[in-house]
Design goal:
alpha/beta, seven-stranded parallel sheet, 9 strands, single chain, globular, Rossmann fold
C-alpha cells in the first residue's frame, strides 16, 4: 500500500527536493505551499497540492481536514519543513515580529501536528520529521528570533518523542547548517540598511538541499530512526562544540560570525 507523506514548505529548497525524491521512491506526496499558484504548480508536478499558511489558524485547520479526507485518515509521514527567518538585533524586534516568527516556525507546527496525530497513529506506525537548524543548537547575534523559534522546536520535538513512546510514531529532527536555498534572500530584516549576512567563510561549507536526503531517508525508513540528524560540517561541529566548550569560549566564536 502506498504511504502518504505530507511535506510543508514545498515551493522551493529542501521541501521541493524532498518531495521530488520521495515521489520517485514510491510515496504519495501531499505538497503544502502557502501561495495558490505554488499549489497549482505542485499539482502539475505530480503531487497532491495542499494550500497551507502556518500563520493562519483557520488555514491550518482547513489543510488538516483536507489531508485527512485525501488519505482516509491514514498518514505515514509528516515532514514539518516550512518556515522563515526574521533577522535583526533583539532591540529592533517588535512583539508582532516575534509572534509572527513563532507562528510560522513553531505554533503552526504544533497545531498541524496535533490535528494530524490521529491519522499518524491510525496504522500503528508513523514518522514526524521536523526541520530545525544549526540555530536550534546555538544562537548568534542578529538571529535571536529565528534561533529562539528553533530552540523551541527542538524542545517540543523531544517532548513529543517521549510522549509518543510506544505508539509506533517516531519523531526526528533534521538540523541543517548552511544550505543553498532561497531562505537567506527571503529573510525579513528588521534593519534593511544593516542586514544580517552569513560570514564569507560559510560559503565554503554550504551544501545543496539534496544533502538532507540521506538523513530524510533514514528518518523515514529505518527501524531505528535517530533523534537528530545534523547536516553540513557546520551543524556537526556546533553540535559537538556546544557540549565541550565553556560558554564564554563558544560566545567568542559565535560573536565573530
Amino acid at each position: 500500500m502506498q504511504k502518504n507523506i505530507l511535506i510543508t514548505g514545498c515551493s522551493s529548497g529542501i521541501g521541493l527536493v524532498a518531495a521530488n525524491d520521495l515521489l520517485q521512491r514510491g510515496y504519495r506526496i501531499l505538497a503544502a505551499c502557502r501561495k495558490p499558484a505554488d499549489v497549482a504548480r505542485m499539482e502539475s508536478l505530480g503531487f497532491t497540492g495542499i494550500e497551507l499558511d502556518l500563520d493562519d489558524t483557520h488555514s491550518v485547520m482547513r489543510a488538516a481536514r483536507q489531508v485527512i479526507a485525501l488519505t482516509g485518515n491514514q498518514l505515514y509521514g509528516l515532514f514539518n519543513n516550512a518556515g522563515f527567518g526574521v533577522y535583526g538585533p533583539l532591540h529592533t524586534l517588535t512583539r508582532q515580529q516575534l509572534e509572527q516568527q513563532f507562528a510560522s516556525n513553531f505554533f503552526g507546527v504544533h497545531q498541524l501536528t496535533m490535528l494530524l496525530l490521529p491519522a499518524l497513529q491510525a496504522q500503528g506506525e508513523g514518522r514526524i520529521i521536523n526541520t530545525s537548524s544549526v540555530l536550534g543548537l546555538v544562537a548568534t547575534p542578529g538571529r535571536g528570533a529565528y534561533a529562539a523559534s528553533k530552540f523551541a522546536l527542538e524542545a517540543w520535538s523531544d517532548t513529543l518523542r517521549m510522549e509518543l513512546q510506544g505508539t509506533g510514531v517516531r519523531v526526528s529532527l533534521i538540523e541543517p547548517g548552511p544550505i543553498h536555498t532561497h531562505f537567506s534572500t527571503n529573510v525579513n530584516q528588521t534593519q534593511p540598511d544593516k542586514p544580517i549576512k552569513n560570514p564569507g567563510i560559510a560559503a565554503r561549507f554550504t551544501l545543496p538541499p539534496e544533502a538532507i536526503l540521506p538523513k530524510l531517508h533514514h528518518a523515514l525508513e529505518s527501524r531505528h530512526p535517530r533523534l537528530r540528524y545534523p547536516v553540513t560540517l557546520v551543524a556537526h561541529s556546533m553540535s559537538v562544540l556546544r557540549r565541550v566548550l565553556p560558554g564564554w569560549m563558544l560566545d567568542r566564536i559565535l560573536r565573530s560570525n
